[in-house]
Specification:
By secondary structure, chain A is mainly alpha-helical. In chain A, 75% of the residues lie in helices and 0% in strands. Chain B has helices spanning 2-10, 13-35, 40-54, 64-83, 100-114, 118-128, 134-141, 145-168. The chains are: A mainly alpha (162), B mainly alpha (169).
Chain lengths: 162, 169
Amino acid sequence: MECPRFLTARVQAAFGESPEDPAWAEHGPDCYHCASEIGEMKELRHLYESAPRRTLNRRSKARVVAALRSASRGRRLRAAAVAAVIFLGATLALPRTRPDAAPRPAAIPAAAVIDKSVTEIRDRVAKLETDMEPAKPYVDAALDDLARRIRLLAWDTENENM
Amino acid sequence: MKDLIQGLKAGDSRAFERLVEEFGDRVHRYVARLAGLDGAEDLTQEVFLRVYRSIGSFEPSGGLAPWIFTIATHLSVDHIRRRIARPMAPTPSNRSGDPVEARELRETLVEAVARLPEEQRRVFYLREEAGLSFREIAEVLRCPPGTALWRMHAAMTRLRKALKAHMEK
C-alpha cells in the first residue's frame, strides 16, 4: 500500500471533506498514487449515485406526519388525565390530612392510675418516715402538694379532651 | 435546528412536517438498505415516532442527524433480528435507454455493497444514503472518526475489487 499515512485523508478528499492532516496540503496535490485512488473512489461513488434512489412519496410522508400528530395528541391527553387525577386526589385528600398533620397531645394516664401511683408512693414514703422521724412533716407536706397538683393536671387534661 | 427541536418538544405540527421533509427520504433509504425494502416504510414511521417520543432526552451537544440515524440503526437491527430479513435485494434499474453494461455494473456495485462486512456496510450507507459526515458517522457508531474513515477505505477497496472482477469476466 502506498502513502499509508494519508489513507484517511484520501477518503476525506474523495468524499468532499477537508482532510485534517496538515501534511496533506503539501503531499496531496503532488502524489500520483493518492490522486489516482481518489479518482477511483469518486468514480465508484458516481456509479453508486446513478442507481435509482428510493424516496418516500407524498402519501407516505403524510402518513408519518399523521402518526406523529396522533402520538402528540395521545401524549397531551395522557398528561391532562394525569393532571386531573392528581388534582382530584389532592382535593379529596385535604380534609383528611389536616387533623393527621396536627400534633397529637401527649398521652396522659387516667386519674385512677395516678391515684393508685400516689398511694403506692405514699406507702413507700410512710415506710421511709419510720426510719427518719424528724423529717416527717416536711415530707408529708411535699407529698400532699404533689398529689394535689397531679390530680389537678389529670382533671384539666381530661376535661380538655372532652 | 434548535427551533425544530423546540417545536417537536412542544408537539408543533409544523415541526413534524419539517422533520419528515428534511429526514424522510434519507431515513427511508437508509433503513431500506440496512434492513430490507420489505417493511421499510413502516420502519421509517417507527423511527420518526421514536424520535418524537425520545426528543426529551436528546442532548443538543450532539447533532440531530446523528441522533436520528442512531435510532434508525438500532431499529433496523431490531427489525432484522425480528424478521430475519436480509439486506435489500439489488434494486433493478428502471431507467430505460441505459446501456446494458452500465446497468450491470451498477447492479454489481449495489450487490457488492450489500455483501460488505456489517461495520463497513453501515459506514457506507450512513454516508451515501443518510448523507452524514464522517464525524457524524463516528457519533452514530460510537467510534473515533479515524475508524469510520478507515472502514470506508476498506469498503472502497473491496468494492473496487468486486467491480474489477466483474469487468474481467
